[in-house]
Each structure stands twice: as C-alpha cells, then as structure tokens.
C-alpha cells in the first residue's frame, strides 16, 4: 500500500526559508534577484525656498538639507521608500542633497564585485529619482571589520551598520551638518524642521532620547562591575539616556574636531577584549554621547515598529504626534507585506513602496 506523498511547500516559501537561513549564518547576504523600481514623481521647491544652483548645492551647506544614508542591495527597497518620503514631505526638495554610503572592499579580488554593486545602486537610484541630488561614497569594510564583535542578531554585525561612525571622514569637509537616517523608516513631515535643530554651543549630535528605558540593560555585568568603566556616565552633565542612532542630526565639524570616530573605535577595541555589551553598533554611541546630546521630540523617531530583535512582533505607535515612523527591530514592513502577514502599521509604509510588482512588469 502506497503512502501518501508529503506535500511540498510552495516554491516562494522555500526561497524565503533559504534566504532566512542564509541571513542567520551570513548576516550580510542579500538576494541575487534584481529588484526593479518605478520612477518617482519630481518634486519642486515652494516659492519661499532659497535658490540654490544644482552645481552649488554641496557648497551651500547652510542653505541645503544634507541627508546621509547607507545603501545596500538587501535594504534598497526600504531606502527607496525613505527617499520618496523625504522628498514628498519636504517644502524644499530641490535643496535636499543625499549622501549614500555603500559597502566596498580594499581586497583586489573583491574590487570587481564592489564596483558592480556600486554601479547597480547608483543606477537604481538614478532611474527611480532622475532629478535627485546625490553622491555615492564607498565604505571599506576592512576599516571596521576587525573591530566588530558578534551581537544578539547577526544582521547587526554587517560592517555597513558601523559606517555612520565614519560619516565625518567620508563626506566632504564643506558639509557642516547632516541628518542621518536608517533605511527602514519613512517621514511624514518636513525634514527641514529636523535638520535645523539647534545643537547649542557644544553638542555634536541631536536625537530623540528615551530616559524611561533601562539604561543598564545595554551593557553587560562585566561593564557595570568594573569601577573605571561604570563611572563613564557619572560625570555627564545630564542623565545618560538611551537614544536610537537611526535618526540623528550631526554637526560634522564638531565631530571632526573632537575625533569622535576614534573614541568610538576605542570602546569597540575594549569590547573585543572584555565583552561589555551585546547590541551591535548602538552601545559605542551611547558610551561616547549618552547624556551629552540635544534631545529631539519623540515625534521624530516613532521607533520599534519592527518589533523586538528575536520575534519581530507587531507593535503600536507610542503616544503623541508623529513625524517619522521607524521599523527598527527584526521585522521589516516589505518582508511582512510580501509574506502576506503584515502588521497593521505596515499599511503606513506601503504607499511609499516603489517596487514594481509582477503585474506592472508584465504590463
């Protein structure tokens, strides 16, 4: 008597499971499937915007809004949605300049792949946003790869996640201030309001702070039991609070003057020896800046919409107004939408999705 054959999972589910398993063992792996995107509409300045010639926009640092983002093939779909949201809600979109940092490699054997990757990313951005003011910067993974320690989620260990610590070295010296944005967010307000945040006389960066979070949980018992390390925050003028590094306003001049990239690297070197934290690129930022930043209204980072770092469960908005929605955490809206298992708030991301569907490709 023949036994019934076991039912096979659908091909798209097998594909998803393979990619998921690869991402666990190889955190920087990306799908080889080329994604195609629709062309976004062109957006124009309102009448009261300062006039900046296209070729002068980098020189006109104070009049322009400079936005920095990392760019890779894994998160390109999220990046495209983020760019569209910035332009759509900006009062002066033609005065906005994007600085994209993409992964590179100094290894001669990897140069061809790195150049191909950069060319693909450049073409993808240019085709979807023909009028966008942007520049692409290669980030050599080797600069930071030897400093990275494993964290609670493999995806956090990609060298490109640490590129934000090197922005002052990568961007032109004439760019004095930049808004750094992650790729898993959308804005629903004018970015100029965030970009013009006052940094006072001394602060290097501004970001939304969360002082009700358990700050001690971001560091290991080894850190807190060592007097020389646990006193790190004792001399801060303000209480050291958690802040999410996915949305920051950075004074690049002050950063360069204070050599803050090196200070972050020193904590990463110590982490390699003593294991003082578990969560990727965030703790070094907290060790250097927590308690010394300008606090921005929480409306500019409604974060955590991707759920926790293990299960990615659905979450609600925090109380209060919203200017920026951030799917930080494990779950990304495009992945949940594709799997037909979206969270309710993923519907707020969907209108900014520029990915061409199978239907639109066929037609």
From TrEMBL:
It is found in: Endomembrane system. Residues 1-31 form the signal peptide. Its main location: membrane. GO terms for molecular function: glycosyltransferase activity. It is a single-pass type II membrane protein. Coiled coil: none annotated. PANTHER family: GALACTURONOSYLTRANSFERASE-LIKE 1-RELATED, GLYCOSYLTRANSFERASE 8 DOMAIN-CONTAINING PROTEIN. This is Hexosyltransferase. It comes from Glycine soja (Wild soybean).
